[in-house]
Amino acid sequence: MMALLARRMAALFLTLLAVSALVFLVMDVLPGDPAAIMLGTSASPDTLAALRHELGLNQPLVFRYFSWIANALHGDFGTSYVYGVPVSQLLVERLAVTLPLTVIAVTLSLAISVPLGTLSAARHNSVLDHVVGVISQLFIAVPGFWVALLLILLFSVGLGLMPAGGFPGWESGFWAALKSLVLPAVALALPQAGVLTRVTRSAVLEVLNEDFVRTARAKGLPRRVALWRHAVPNALIPVVTVLGLQLTFLIAGAILVENVFNLPGLGRLAYQSLMQRDILVMQDVVLLFAGLVVIMSFVVDLSYLFLDPRLRQVST
């Protein structure tokens, strides 16, 4: 078990290192000069050269990369070219919005998909099964940002139940802040719930045909108990796998949804830093996004060992 964890941790570190190198290289080849953006096009060449020297932009690419990584390992992510504040401060402030938003979206996605997928599998080829199939396909087909606009029109403009955008901050009260995240979380959750519903249905259907489920039913175990106590727990591995992969789509969707709802999260920060050519902030945000995806994949791999004890025996 410890050997497996050591191997996974080593793979995690190497993956993050490779991702950081790729992110730094891509950001470096983007067109535009941060110094020229900060000072304007009318700045003199001497002033531009002095600012490039101050920002370290005149250093070789390899030197700048290792300097960036070394500082990041010590918690120093540099200073934003545009905002003039430490990038770590920006990341912490924006994480306070994006992290709860993602957690709520994942929770809603699971709360919708697992019951729907399970009931659809239990009523295979019934009217309920076909209805759930249509609903899940609709969730998948409709873009998240379009769902966000519909939710604003219905619940904010039409009914006046939810705020149309903005984030008051957690210091204004838990419920006020949470209320501003409900509609964005629903917009993020519905497309992912459609995918998870179909995966859950297929996984539960496959497990229902296994010998141990038929044996449990033959011994007199009620169908409902056999479904929820035996079939669903053994069908969770593919669901958890897809859920881990969906984190990437949640992050990509957050960029659009946060801009629609005017939320000061990491997605909006990434968009703003790209438009303002704030390379350092963009590098750190993308690296943080990539790190979250890699770490989530690591957590998903470890969850297999707890969901299926047989894998622990194979891995030792």
UniProtKB/TrEMBL annotation:
Record's keyword annotation contains Glycoprotein: no
Entries under SUPFAM superfamilies matching the protein: MetI-like (SSF161098)
Major subcellular site: membrane
Gene Ontology CC annotations of this record: plasma membrane
Entry coiled-coil feature ranges: none
InterPro entries: BPD_transp_1_N (IPR045621), MetI-like (IPR000515), MetI-like_sf (IPR035906)
Cell compartment(s), UniProt: Cell membrane
CDD domains the UniProt entry points to: TM_PBP2
TM annotation in the entry: 95-117, 138-161, 173-191, 231-257, 285-307
Record membrane topology: Multi-pass membrane protein
Record's keyword terms, sorted: Cell membrane, Membrane, Transmembrane, Transmembrane helix, Transport
Molecular function GO labels: dipeptide transmembrane transporter activity
Domain ABC transmembrane type-1: residue ranges: 95-304
PANTHER family, sorted: DIPEPTIDE TRANSPORT SYSTEM PERMEASE PROTEIN DPPB-RELATED
Family membership noted in the UniProt record: Belongs to the binding-protein-dependent transport system permease family.
Protein name in the entry: Peptide/nickel transport system permease protein
Higher taxonomy: Bacteria, Pseudomonadati, Pseudomonadota, Alphaproteobacteria, Hyphomicrobiales
